[in-house]
Specification:
The protein is an alpha/beta fold and 282 residues long. It has a single domain, classed as TIM Barrel, CATH 3.20.20.370. It is 40% helix and 15% strand. It binds zinc ion (ZN). The site of zinc ion has 6 residues, from loops.
Length: 282
């Protein structure tokens, strides 16, 4: 059985909300898509130079602290804006070096990517991260062990639950008999969902993904999931946005509307670390 947790919320609050940002910038076009032309690099440039400052301004207006998952490559390429994120008091999470797909890496390669990404975050002055998010939201069979060994306390990449934290278990797969779960990890999973991710819903990828869904549709889905979370005890709502996607004009206004909607209905806006520190297991 999955071991599920509950968030102990501040008095009067109904749901813990992390308005997290994956600050992928140019790394996503390199590590995930191998698209290195100046046009794709300009989309990453928009993320760092336009989208990220818009989010910093928005969070400052509402005095909200969040988790920014920064690949090492973003920290190395755009150090100034990353330092501004740190100076604003947000949590910095670890998110690979150049947005590598972990399932394509050997144990040694994956451990080395972790070392490189932590070194780059250290170089820009980030406190040692306690929250990990895998690029691609995928795990290799070695990922859980590597993040345990590197001292992480929280992970936010898996989908074994949607609105409650839980302890992830290694899984051995068999196609001719039952799969086997191992013992639960000490890492606390703050689960994600493709329905609470802006990228597939908004960004256009030539020949693949249309994106371009109207912002109001996305608001309706995100608000409806929040309304359900309010009916549960000790729920957490982990939203994943990208400055590249939700930093655009039509989206950033919708995000502001969502912040107001949630604030009026008992959201406790917090970083993954703050949420993690307030979780209990029965
Ligand atoms: Zn990412």
């Amino acid at each position: 059985m999955q071991k599920q947790g509950k968030v102990i919320l501040p008095k009067g609050k109904k749901v813990a909300v992390n308005l997290g940002l994956d600050f992928d910038a140019q790394s996503i076009w390199d590590g995930s898509y191998n698209l290195l032309s100046p046009a794709y690099m300009s989309r990453g440039e928009f993320c760092a130079e336009v989208g990220a400052p818009r989010f910093l301004k928005l969070f400052d207006k509402y005095q909200i602290k969040n988790t920014w998952f920064i690949p090492g490559h973003t920290a190395d390429t755009f150090p100034q804006i990353c330092k501004e994120v740190i100076a604003a008091g947000h949590e910095i999470g670890c998110h690979g070096y150049v947005h590598e797909n972990p399932t394509k890496l050997s144990y040694e390669q994956e451990a080395n990517v972790m070392k490189m990404s932590l070194a780059s975050l250290d170089k820009i002055g980030a406190p040692k991260p306690v929250t990990y998010r895998s690029p691609y939201w995928d795990f290799s069979p070695n990922t859980l062990e590597i993040i345990e060994k590197n001292g992480f306390l929280y992970d936010s990449s898996l989908m074994g639950n949607d609105l409650h934290p839980y302890l992830p278990r290694p899984v051995k797969t068999h196609s001719d008999r039952a799969n086997e779960f191992g013992e639960p990890s000490k890492i606390i999973e703050l689960p994600v969902s493709w329905f609470l991710d802006d990228f597939p819903q908004t960004e256009y990828l030539t020949g693949g993904q249309e994106g371009q869904r109207p912002a109001n549709d996305i608001f309706d889905r995100w608000a409806s999931i929040f309304d359900y979370a309010r009916t549960l005890e000790g729920a957490c709502y982990i939203l994943t946005m990208h400055p590249q996607a939700s930093g655009r004009a039509h989206m950033i206004q919708m995000v502001e509307r969502l912040i107001n909607y949630m604030a009026e209905r008992g959201a406790w806006f917090a970083t993954c670390k703050e949420i993690g520190e307030n979780i209990v297991f029965d």
